[in-house]
Amino acid sequence: MFDATIAAELRFLPHFRALPADLLQALATGARRRTLAAGEVVFSEGEPARAFYVVRQGTVKVYRISADGREQVLHHLGEGRTFAEAAVLTMPVYPAHAVAVTGGTELIEIGAERFLALFRTDPRLAAAMVSSLSMWLISLTERVEELAVASATARLAHYLLRLPSKLAQGPLVLELPFAKKDLAAHLAITPETLSRLLRRWQDAGLLRTEGRRFEILDERLLVAIADRDEKV
Amino acid sequence: MFDATIAAELRFLPHFRALPADLLQALATGARRRTLAAGEVVFSEGEPARAFYVVRQGTVKVYRISADGREQVLHHLGEGRTFAEAAVLTMPVYPAHAVAVTGGTELIEIGAERFLALFRTDPRLAAAMVSSLSMWLISLTERVEELAVASATARLAHYLLRLPSKLAQGPLVLELPFAKKDLAAHLAITPETLSRLLRRWQDAGLLRTEGRRFEILDERLLVAIADRDEKV
DNA sequence: CGGTGCGTTGACATTTCTCAACTGTTGTGG
DNA sequence: CCACAACAGTTGAGAAATGTCAACGCACCG
């Protein structure tokens, strides 16, 4: 049951870093790994919240289905992010669906039961949870800001600029952690609009794209588009 | 310094309800009331996070200024809501601006210093904070959903349906907690678009408006608009 | 009583969506 | 290992939604 590797991996999470070794080991007991194929379900809305998760590898999409059957993407989560802590801490059931976006997605699943027992008895874990929830708040706030920016154009520029870059040298190179259609869903625009925007920017020499790879040729202009909604 | 009234008022907050009386009194010590005029600043972005707040009366707007000088409303907070807890718990400075929207807004201000001392020593308070932060998560998630709904039309319908109603009897009567221009900012649309949508719905007999008062005449249709983006 | 700002309305420009067709890519079973 | 199905991505044309700019009435406040 006990897995020393899991404890070691948990230590690398920002909000667990400060936790003492014994607590991490206690957490790791009752945790297990899950490897998922693209599209595989982690949990569904309405299901009892029996565990929360850490993304080790790949991307997970958290979404809801709106009344008209559309999928509302709430979040795309990459490596090192935790999710569903709030559900485990304060809700009987999951409030959304979660599926693996990329193939070979690896998660650490932390069972609710043992976790809650620890949470109730160990105040250090409560502090870690507060910091973890705060990180969620920050990221959701950014999401609200991102969506509230009026134009789809500015939203896309905004998103690209926040994407972690690959190379410090030369032109800015970015790599999408998921398919373009997922990016479109994230930005609340249609795939067609995304495609057209990228083409226009490419024609204007602002960037070059090849699959999921983006090479930003004129970062200054991209910033201007994100900020002032300057045209291209 | 000690104010029994404040302690009594804190007890009515959802996440403080479970706290024992001695802890509430300790919290109330070091808290003070603030009454604000419309537009008065509670705190500004970048300022040291020296306190968090409880809304007793009125509405507070939390917003950021984007690079192009526009105001991005992150949240409108009504009676009973707390805000800036996350800032006090995990950040050196406030990450956004907060101002009173309505005149005569009353807040309870809870100083960070004493609060953090309590937080670190009393595990019950940590649990209360986790529940408070979770409530924020839920409300931000709703906000993301609200904004991600493609059309402004559906967003408005969605918002009206979530607004607490006044009368159980007869037609649904709602009252906006702030001016229409604030509603427009909240929905990320222009005041002109808001005005035109309301006029169209009024002409169609869907609702009646008078200032901030809304009388919903055809709730079913409004739900359909929010869900399927049915036309009017 | 005059200003200041909210709300409304009109005309027009622009953005984005929808629908439809087509191409390229990927993964899989034969 | 190939052929084909399924799906991602692109492109075009036209429709619909929303923003912009401008003007004006109206209420509230000093």
Task: Summarize the structure in words.
Two copies of one chain form a homodimer. Chain A is an alpha+beta fold. Chain A is 43% helix and 23% strand. Chain A has nine helices and eleven strands. In chain A, the strands form three sheets. A four-stranded antiparallel beta sheet of chain A has the order 1-8-3-6. In chain A, helix 1 (4-10) packs across helix 2 and helix 4 (112-121) crosses helix 5 (123-148). The model of chain A has no long low-confidence stretch (mean pLDDT 89). The interface between A and B is large, with 39 and 38 residues. Chain A binds a DNA duplex (30 and 30 nucleotides) through residues 150-153, 179-181, 189-196, 199.
Kindly list the characteristics that best describe this protein.
homodimer; four-stranded antiparallel β-sheet; alpha+beta; 232 residues; DNA-binding
